[in-house]
Specification:
7 strands; 36% helix; alpha+beta; five-stranded antiparallel sheet; two-stranded antiparallel sheet; elongated
């Protein structure tokens, strides 16, 4: 906890308010409306000017911010504290982006699994390859070739192609 801080919030332009402490939703909404991406830390007064917030933009991506509030007697942070806040905001931004990418990857994997299940229901064998290596297959394909998905993943696709058919694939 920083000297002079009595609350705050973390805001992501993609996800909205991720965490808040010591602030009402209305106070956070008022401060978020004043966030400008790419700017240096700014001191923002509350509407009633009884408290202040130091708002540190998160780097990269849509507008986001880390804000720390202070009462009327301690509205400013020393330069070392601001540097610490900026560094923390950068780390937080990277962490939030990693979480977003992980969530997007999980959603994509769920879509692939749903497509493979649907093709199973139709009796169609499907294998997914990336740069020649197998990364997935549905149950019908596994039964066709006599391998489990675990045995297929990582293998070279050409291992499953009959030697006399490999020329059709450029091998």
């Amino acid at each position: 906890r920083l000297v002079g801080g009595d609350g705050g919030f973390v805001f992501s332009g993609r996800e909205g308010v991720l965490e808040r402490q010591g602030l009402t939703k209305e106070e956070v909404a008022s401060l978020v409306a004043q966030v400008e991406a790419g700017k240096r830390p700014v001191l923002v007064p509350f509407v009633d000017r009884t408290r202040w917030a130091t708002v540190v933009p998160l780097g990269g991506g849509p507008a986001g911010a880390l804000a720390v509030t202070a009462g009327p007697l301690a509205p400013l942070f020393a330069s070392e504290e601001l540097e610490r806040l900026e560094r923390y905001a950068r780390w937080l931004s990277v962490a939030l982006e990693r979480v977003r990418l992980s969530d997007a990857l999980q959603e994509q994997m769920e879509r692939y699994a749903a497509v493979l299940r649907a093709l199973d229901d139709l009796g169609q064998g499907v294998v997914i390859a990336d740069r020649g290596g197998l990364v997935g297959a549905n149950d019908v394909f596994c039964r066709m070739v006599g391998y489990s998905v675990g045995e297929l993943v990582g293998r070279d696709f050409m291992d499953l192609v009959a030697p006399d058919e490999r020329a059709r694939f450029g091998h």
